[in-house]
Amino acid sequence: LSPGDAIAGRLLIRKLIAEKLCIPWNEINLQRTSKGKPFLANNVFSIYSNYNFNVSHQGDYAVLAAEPELQVGIDIMKTNLPGSSSIPNFFRIMERQFTETEWCVIKSMSNEWMQLDMFHRHWALKESFLKAIGVGIGFNLQRIEFNVSPLQLEVGKVYKETKMLLDGDEEAEWTFEVRNIHIYFFNNNKQSQHHKPNQPQFTLLTFEDLVASGIPITPEDSECWDNFCSKQEHPVKQNSHSR
């Protein structure tokens, strides 16, 4: 995760709150739960019972999903080769993160790259669910089992056929939405009137879009900025033998 990705995620959150809840940028009070999930600490409960949001970043994307009343989580994954390890060895290392049924689906794909892609699809689904319910990394991922459908994803389509089992029982109240660029997002769908059949449609934002409504939170320090701009982008490495 690069600093730019993290900043983009924070700017997305502030833009969302400022525009949708009409809270001035510099009055937004963001805090984290004990498990690290960001939440809005401003009092908006007279309007929304559970306004919540979630961000994810990887590769060229930082994404955000939000929901005024229901639980929501999002995760984005980029299919990359697993460093110096081979794909089969990588799968052996990660064996305990998925159920036997999930591994059967992953390994049923016709080549190693497609298997790796399906691995990341399952991983992002699990990550999104954990982010939606706000739990940490200590959760046993084998308690969750996804029945992904369809196996092949067409460009530009949103799929909602995927189902999840928790401790062997189907969790019918959750909706799983999957897009072909591996954006996964969840709504707790107990109140179906809040769930639109053809949503979400993601909007691509520029940096200028993100900061358009921004208000400085602290006074501008031009000297600090000048000092920052004067630094070298890549510090010169010290000679290990120099004194």
Automatic annotation (TrEMBL):
<dbReference type="InterPro" id="IPR050559">
    <property type="entry name" value="P-Pant_transferase_sf"/>
</dbReference>
<dbReference type="GO" id="GO:0019878">
    <property type="term" value="P:lysine biosynthetic process via aminoadipic acid"/>
</dbReference>
<dbReference type="GO" id="GO:0008897">
    <property type="term" value="F:holo-[acyl-carrier-protein] synthase activity"/>
</dbReference>
<feature type="domain" description="4'-phosphopantetheinyl transferase N-terminal">
    <location>
        <begin position="6"/>
        <end position="68"/>
    </location>
</feature>
<protein>
    <recommendedName>
        <fullName>L-aminoadipate-semialdehyde dehydrogenase-phosphopantetheinyl transferase</fullName>
        <ecNumber>2.7.8.7</ecNumber>
    </recommendedName>
</protein>
<dbReference type="GO" id="GO:0005829">
    <property type="term" value="C:cytosol"/>
</dbReference>
<dbReference type="InterPro" id="IPR037143">
    <property type="entry name" value="4-PPantetheinyl_Trfase_dom_sf"/>
</dbReference>
<dbReference type="Pfam" id="PF22624">
    <property type="entry name" value="AASDHPPT_N"/>
</dbReference>
<keyword id="KW-0808">Transferase</keyword>
<comment type="similarity">
    <text>Belongs to the P-Pant transferase superfamily. AcpS family.</text>
</comment>
<dbReference type="InterPro" id="IPR055066">
    <property type="entry name" value="AASDHPPT_N"/>
</dbReference>
<feature type="domain" description="4'-phosphopantetheinyl transferase">
    <location>
        <begin position="71"/>
        <end position="178"/>
    </location>
</feature>
<dbReference type="InterPro" id="IPR008278">
    <property type="entry name" value="4-PPantetheinyl_Trfase_dom"/>
</dbReference>
<dbReference type="GO" id="GO:0000287">
    <property type="term" value="F:magnesium ion binding"/>
</dbReference>
<dbReference type="Pfam" id="PF01648">
    <property type="entry name" value="ACPS"/>
</dbReference>
